[in-house]
Specification:
383 residues
Amino acid sequence: MMEKEASGAGGDVIKVQIKFGGETMPICLPPDSAVSELKSTLQSFTNLLPRGQKLIHKGRVLEDSKTLRSSGVSHGSKIMLMASQGLHQGDGPKIKNAPVMSNYQRVTTINNCMNNRKQPSSSVERVSVDKSRLERWKVTGVIALSQCHLKAIPDQLWDCGSSARVLDLSNNHISHIPSKIGSLTLIQKLMLNANEVSDDSIMWEGLTYLKSLTHLSLSDNHLTTLPACLGSLTSLRQLHVSSNKLISLPDDLGFLRHLEILNVNNNRLSTVPASIGNCHSLTEVDLSSNLLVELPETFGVLRNLKALHVRNNGLKSLPSSLFKTCIKLSTLDLHGTEITMDKLRMVEGWEEFDARRRLKNQKQLDFRAGGSADFDEGADKKW
């Protein structure tokens, strides 16, 4: 593991050994650095928020306000890191578990998806589709192949062409999305979630032909980036890319002027492009469990935004105009961030937002935590 060097007060740089999760991390920083600076440095390695870290050296818990030197920490010192449950950012990709089925269900599913021919799921590379099923797809426009143990998209599927409206290939083992996907020119809903899709195995240029696409789901795959050509899907209303390994979003996201729902939780995002402010139709954004420390000020121009989920990030503040100009915002999830109630009350427009939140919860019939008199959607009263 590469050594991390942090900036701090004067003095020679020392190396300390941080033990966490069965591993040892060498961290370099000046001895007059505060313990809080060490915690901030560790955040990028461990995804643990500073207030969720407990550092123990020679049996004593290190205090944030003290320096390493005054705490007895020197070159070569070993420090144990303990984590508080829930105080973390960036949960990372979830492990996809195959649905549990009985032998009868497994045989039935495979038969239905593969022309009534029994084949072990491990051997399914190419799938034949009988003519009657193909004709039914063309008539209904709905191609349902979810949970069929597919490793490849059936070639006959491309014969549906412009008659296809919905394609559901979710919960399979498909890795390659060919450029032929562009032959489904009038498709509106494409579900590729819970497969084995990676950056190199999806031919994005094919997707750019899908000008009628309104719903795209690529959650639970292995993507680390989204291409600029995503911005050409200008009819898109819902984009779901949660539980991947995304480290960035393209600036061209701003061309999705009709986008209403953006779900990017459980990834590795450290920034959000300012161009998101051009997505004026957004009503719900989920950025939970990433590596964000701030949100762009352009969030303040999303006047249709109703729900913002940013739990489990390193956020310490919100865009200054969020409450004032996002006049429809009534749901805000801040659990596991550094934002406290005191900070929220200082943001202009807080009173108006709180009134909307209360009004919304009064209309709900259940009694969830959010419906209480006090704000309980994530901001801690104290640390």
